[in-house]
Amino acid sequence: MLCAVLVGAVVQNLVGLGLGLVAAPVITLVAPELMPDVLLWLATALPLVTLWRDHDDIDWRGLGWTFPTRLVGTVAAVAAVAAISPAALGVLIGLVVLAAVVLTWRAVTVPLNRGTLLGAGLLGGFAGTASSVGGPPLAILYQHSPPQRMRTTLAVYFTTGSAISLLGLGLGGQLSLSHFWVSLAVLPMLFVGTLAGSRLRRRIPLARVRPAVLAVCAASALVLLVRSVVLLTT
């Protein structure tokens, strides 16, 4: 788990998301009872570390449109987690994200406007609360933005969104204090990963950031799909 969190923090500092991609499958295999709240605690803390170093170019106006629907998506996810198999939810979310990546890779350019921001907030709130993989919807939307703006905007979104998801799970009685202490124990890996990712970031050409973002989103969807299918068949 420590290694997974470290690598996930490095990836997220490089392209703006990735902690869930790397850490979620490992935590699910090692200790599935810790999901999704341990990863949500970490997803709340990591962007704060990132924003401490980089806090310019945040799209506050765009984020303002995602927050109301993020709340709606969170409430829907809390209800869905209580009523539907998490594995079935994972399959659905993975398919939706993968389809979005395929469509936007070449064929479709998603405009960055109020409507798409509201939709990304809704889907991100639902996916993040239900499966801890809530970053791809907004990342796909900001894929054509300057890398620094995308990274810092996603960082604010992850912090506030994960906090909302944790609040929703807490009100639903689905949080454990022991899981918080586990998150605190692996927190130092986030700091190490942030420093390593910041150094590596300087060596990545700007032209490669968008493909890297889409690749991470696609990988997140595939990992979630495989993980969910395995849970459904066991």
UniProtKB/TrEMBL annotation:
It is a multi-pass membrane protein. It is found in: Cell membrane. Its main location: membrane. Keywords: Cell membrane, Membrane, Transmembrane, Transmembrane helix, Transport. It comes from the Bacteria. The chain crosses the membrane at residues 38-54, 75-105, 117-142, 154-173, 179-200, 212-232. Pfam families: TauE. InterPro entries: TM_pro_TauE-like, TSUP. Belongs to the 4-toluene sulfonate uptake permease (TSUP) (TC 2.A.102) family. This is Probable membrane transporter protein. The lineage of its organism: Bacteria, Bacillati, Actinomycetota, Actinomycetes, Propionibacteriales.
